[in-house]
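Hi R.,

As promised, here are both runs. First protein below:
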Amino acid sequence: MVIEYKASHRYARITARKARYVVDQVRNMPVEAALDMLRFSDRRAAPMIAKVIKSALHNAIQEGGADPENLVICRAMINEGPTMKRWRPRARGMAFPILKRTSHINIFLADRSEVGATAKKEN
């Protein structure tokens, strides 16, 4: 059984689709390498995801006494949150909807040796 350390950012004000582009780049990477990549990313979701990874890292250190150099991002999920609906006035008295989408960012960290051991057992 792999011990995972979790952190989440719920109701993040970014669409899930845009955040998934960033999280796909850092999935299965070591934590330090992922934070370096996010630091130089121009995407708007990068600071949000970096903050969640740092939170999961601190959870791992505080709860389990894990070594930060051995942690990898084993799972990273971006789910859709609720959509705020707003209306924009248009011509001839019509109204067009504006959908302000939110997302839930979930990051799970695990020890590199434990993740590798379970992958070998599955194959």
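And here is the second one, sequence first, then its structure tokens:
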Amino acid sequence: MLVAFSVAPSGADESGSVHKAVAEAVRIVRESGLPNHTDSMFTTIEGEWTEVFDVIRRATEAVGRYGSRVSLVLKADIRPGYRGQLTAKVERVEKALAEDIGN
């Protein structure tokens, strides 16, 4: 399964940024060893249900130390029997775009 998530504390530092809290969450994801990708809005992680949600739980708990409330947004692609979709889905789109350019 793929799960894209965004987690942030309710408060921010004096600049309005939550980057330190988000960095703690991303560190936990990266240390998990599961395939992952972080962009400006979400971190996507790939693995089995229990391992993915354990990482998300730990990342959310880490962010919780930065404020009294936490916002968590999740989007999941649950497709049993498929692995490597973190990159394969993007590769299929890129291939389709390249084919369109060649026509």
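A quick note on the second one: The chain has a mean pLDDT of 92. Let me know what you think.

Best,
J.
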